[in-house]
């Protein structure tokens, strides 16, 4: 039968607890799990709903580019939120102006959604908003 050396085991727990306390004080936290990192923020979720209602017809469901529409995923990589909002409020070609249809906060949410890119948990948002 194996005997556990309790004083040695206890010492390991103290060392681990001390390390965790030092890391916490230093502002270093444990890395997020994959599920946490993949979870959309409230702004991204709201943006997914607005995108689904106002943008997906031309720019594609799940941000999949349609032939005639501008590729928004590629565009936001080099675009600030302010520039995106300004562009969405200006009519050009087949693109209508959303200046009166959407608030700046809604457009900012759409920007956050596009910047993040589509993830599986945002499919749930789209399905919830259809009900």
Q: Quick gist of this model?
A:
With 131 residues, the chain is mainly α.
Features:
mainly alpha; 8 helices; single chain; 131 residues; Cytochrome Bc1 Complex, Chain D, domain 2
Mean pLDDT: 75
The CATH H-level homologous superfamily: Cytochrome c-like domain
Q: Per CATH, which architecture?
A: Orthogonal Bundle
Proportion of residues in extended strands: under 5%
Q: Would you state the CATH class?
A: Mainly Alpha
Largest beta-sheet details: none
Spatial shape: globular
Please give the alpha-carbon distance between the first and last residues. Answer: 62 Å
CA radius of gyration: 23 Å
In words, what does this structure look like?
The chain has 131 residues and is an all-alpha fold. The protein has a single domain, classed as Cytochrome Bc1 Complex, Chain D, domain 2, CATH 1.10.760. The chain has helices at residues 6-25, 34-38, 42-54, 56-59, 72-76, 81-88, 104-116, 120-129. Helix 3 (42-54) packs across helix 7 (104-116) and helix 3 (42-54) crosses helix 8 (120-129). The longest helix is centred in the N-terminal third of the chain and has 20 residues, at 6-25. The radius of gyration is 23 Å and the shape is globular.
Question: What is the fold's blueprint, element by element?
Answer:
Blueprint: H1 6-25, H2 34-38, H3 42-54, H4 56-59, H5 72-76, H6 81-88, H7 104-116, H8 120-129
Helix pairs in contact: 3-7, 3-8, 6-7
